[in-house]
Amino acid sequence: MDLRKWTTEKLQFLLNALKKFDTDHGFLLSSGITFNLLICLIPLSLLLLGLVGTYLYSDREVLSHIRRYLETVAPSLDPKIMRNILRVIHGRKIVGILGLAGLVWASTWVFSSLRTSLNIVFQVEKGRGILRGKAIDLLMIFLAGIFHIMSMTLTSVFTFIKKYRIQSPIDIGLIIQLMLKYVIPFLFTFWMFFLIYKIIPDKKIQFKSAFQAALFTSLFWEVAKQLFGWYVLHLGKFSVIYGSLGTLAIFFLWVYYSSAILLLGGEVAFLLEKRGDGINS
User: Fold this and answer.
1) Cα angle vertex 117, ends 249, 211, to 5°?
2) Theoretical Cys-Cys bridge with 128: which of 2, 132, 184, 257, CB 3.0 to 4.6 Å?
3) Which residues contact 31 (CB under 8 A, 6 or more apart)?
4) What CA–CA distance (Å, rounded) separates 268 from 261?
5) How far apart are CA 249 and CA 126, in angstroms?
6) What is the C-alpha separation between 75 and 250, in angstroms, rounded?
């Protein structure tokens, strides 16, 4: 297969994904995911802080990791927004088991909205039911916590190596800095996308389809993040329109675009599944 034919096929595939995204009202679904994600941002962080910060890491370490991750995923995020988010998290009041259960329940909303949207994308006719659906939501919260702990552990290891690095002809500090700033966040994002496509829909998704869709979404999301950050810094005049709320509008807009990219990746997974079924039949 020559390069021109391969490129044409890939562009046609992407065009089909965009057409189905429009047919499924992807931007409308993205607004619902954005709303639930913004509502669940604080409960998810509080839940992580309440569990991980109690048994494995100190509150300061968890807060520091949350701050670094927000800086990584949100382009040009204003420090005031981040400080306010962290202030709310730091001033938490969790009262016993009932408070913890409330945080868990509130944190499941974002995964419930993802499941509803992805069921539309994958044309699921019959869902798993309320109990199984909530069980999947709880599983995703658990897996997100596991990945966050792994990310914190890797960050701690690389920081330790950087602090006590041995003599080497290679600049280990630069490599570690690249790992902390780019590689670890990318891997964390990639595997979260993979789990979302593989587990959340009420339909069996093949490993290969979920993997390819997660790779597409992760790369597309990274490119979009850089472009959006460049636009905000050089072209966007949000402060003229929104005034003091400009930075908040930027954050909301980026979460909305991220939700749309996630759903577009779901459309890619659906088309890969459909093409695979056609080949097998």
Assistant:
1) 100
2) 132
3) 256, 259
4) 11
5) 37
6) 9
Nearest Cα neighbor of 59 from 38, 95, 86, 97 is 86
DSSP string, 20-52: HHHHTTHHHHHHHHHHHHHHHHHHHHHHHHHHH
> In whole angstroms, what is the distance from residue 145 CA to residue 246 CA?
31
- CA R_g for the chain: 20
Half-sphere exposure of 95 (CA within 13 A, CB side): 1
- Helix/strand/coil percentages in the chain, nearest 5: 85, 0, 15
234/198 Cα distance (integer angstroms): 38
Q: Helices (DSSP H) in 179-206: which residue ranges?
A: 184-199
Please answer whether residues 29 and 120 qualify as being in contact, where contact means their C-beta atoms are separated by less than 8 angstroms.
yes
Instruction: Going residue by residue through the chain, which has 281 residues, state the pLDDT in tens, using 9 for 90 and above.
Output: 577 888 888 899 999 999 999 999 999 999 999 988 888 776 666 666 655 555 444 555 555 656 666 556 555 555 555 565 556 555 555 544 555 666 677 778 888 889 999 999 999 888 777 788 888 888 887 787 677 667 666 666 666 666 665 555 555 666 666 776 677 778 888 988 999 999 999 888 999 999 999 999 999 988 888 888 777 776 656 656 655 566 677 778 888 999 999 999 999 999 999 887 644 54
Any idea of the CA torsion for 135, 140, 44, 26, to the nearest 10 degrees? Answer: -100
CA pair distance 181, 164, nearest whole angstrom: 19
- The Cα 145–Cα 133 span in angstroms is 19
